[in-house]
Sequence to fold (315 residues):
Amino acid sequence: MTVRTVTARGMRAGVLATVVAVAAGLLAGGPDGRAAQDPPVQAAPAAAALAPAADCDVTKSAPPAEDPNGSAIRRIRQRGSLVVGVDQNSFNWGYRNPRTGRIEGFDIDLAHAIAASVLGDPERITFRTVPTARRIDAIKNGEVDLITRTMTITCDRLKEVAFSVPYFRTGQQVVVPRAAKVPSLAAAFKGRRACVAAQSSSEAELKRDARGTSAVRVVENQLDCLVLMQLGQVDTTLTDGALAAAQAAQDPTVQVLDESISDAYMGVAVNRAAPDLVAWVNQVLAEYRSGGGWQRSYARWLAPTMGASTAPYLP
Fold:
């Protein structure tokens, strides 16, 4: 397994939140400190591209299938490594373990499962850390084969990349300092300084409805919002509910409000010109759920902060 950082800008300050972030910055090139030297990923010909669903049902995707003769699968096997875009700053989802130097978490387990299916070895994988704002570009530019990085499926994103079927149901939630004693979702925004990650669903939500905020701070990664909140530079963070829980797990001085803004679904993002890889990932997800892999990963990484779950999302 190798690790490469696509871009490394971001705040590395704060108290509890940055234990993961600082470790990620120090070890951005992998356990040996060097960047991976894998050749760039090549996209399939545009003529084979998947078209987004006309009715924009974000729970629909290609039928599950394993086609060893598909062009994307053949390229991955010839290269000998699956190149996956991930996060290294989201606690329990995709973060660099400061003790081992390895990137770990719920999304990382899924990436290993895909590598095991395609290449027969879960460690034949190259992780490239990609900030929130660069996820779609990394897919379209051929920097990665796929993205497993708490990425919400949206109608706008379906115009640019393809997605697997959903593997997690979530929603937008708010993180606030406990000391602020915020009574409600509405009060979390009105007259307060909010923070969101660039090109995230949270940014799109506040562009649609600013909810009375006095200012909106846009940062590269959602963890930067937690750092800014610790520094007193913002009052409220809007992020994916799963990531909100991860922030609260990192810093007990903040809390997640119970109210959720909307339902959303996470999927594995793939180039639209690689329909065979989309179908293969969907087959992996079907087996991952039915074989108990999803539940085991959830129990290990997410149950302590999100509660027990006996019914993983099944599209």
Residues 275-290 form the longest helix (16 residues). The radius of gyration is 19 Å. Residues 119 and 310 are 30 Å apart (CA to CA). The mean pLDDT is 84.
